[in-house]
Structure formats: structure tokens, C-alpha cells
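Write out the 3D structure for:
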Amino acid sequence: MDDSDEALMAQVARGDEPAYRALTRRHLPAMLGLARRILGNAADAEDVAQEAMLRVWTHAPRWQPLAAFRTWLTRVVVNLCLDRKRRARWVALEAAGELVDPAPGATEAAELGERERMLMRAIAELPARQRAAIVLTYSEGMSNAQVADILGTSVSAVETLLVRGKQNLRARLVHAIDGEE
């Protein structure tokens, strides 16, 4: 039995619920993680991931295997995230407060955590397409060609988004570090 994503999607198109559940088990965790990294909000990420999986079911009869299923699904998630970012305003991470870890090595953990928060804040401040290109390339490990396919653009445009995104990140991080000293 062929259990490739494309074969399962063909079965879903015929109303096969077990095939749909298999695709959901296979891809929901990764799509949820991707949405969390792009949105920075677990509740919104869950909504996006569930909406994406609902679209798998509703669009299955019209789905054409022009690209790999995972590429198509990733594009759906990224587009839903970008749509949500256009509609909603971010709540500042400072509003969440800080937790202090009293365990040994807390200083190192706090410093690492602060660097991570600074990076996440800087990524969150990037324009949406630059942020998506950075997350897909560096967090998801996708190639520029895959990112271009997901974002519906060319490889050279992705390279430009990455260069500009890294320049913006560098400037934001230098400004954040200089502001703390």
C-alpha cells in the first residue's frame, strides 16, 4: 500500500477519513511548530494549524500534485500566518514578565534566554515576508527554492528577502544591545 502524502491526499479526495487522520498525524506537529515560530503565539498557532488541516480536507478534491504535499501544506500555513499577522497586533513580549530560575547555572540560562528573546523580538519586528523567509530557511531548514515555492516568488527574491532580513536583524540586535549597556 502506497502511504505517500500524495497517495493519502488522493484517498482524502475520495472522502477517506483514515487517510485524512494519517496526514494529520504526520504533518500537524510540524505545521503547529512552524506557525508558532512565525506567529510567536501558541493559541494563534493552534488556530492556524487547525485551519490548515481543515483546508486539507475541504480542498482535497481540487488539489493537484504540482508540488509535494508538504510544500503545499507549508505554503497554506505560511499564508494563514501572514494573513493573521496583517490583522492582529503583537503584544509586547515585555508584558509577559520574566521568570527567575534559582537553580545552579541560572545565570547562564538567563543570559541564553535573554539572547533568544532578543532574537525572537527582532524577528517578530521584521516585515512579514522577510520574517517568513528567515523562519523557513533557518528554523525549518528549507532550501531557497522551497521557500520561493511556498512564498510564491523567485529564488532571487528569497535571497533578497534573506539579505534584507539579516541586515534588519543585525541592526535591531545592535540597537537592542547598545540600548542595554
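The two ends are 62 Å apart (CA to CA).
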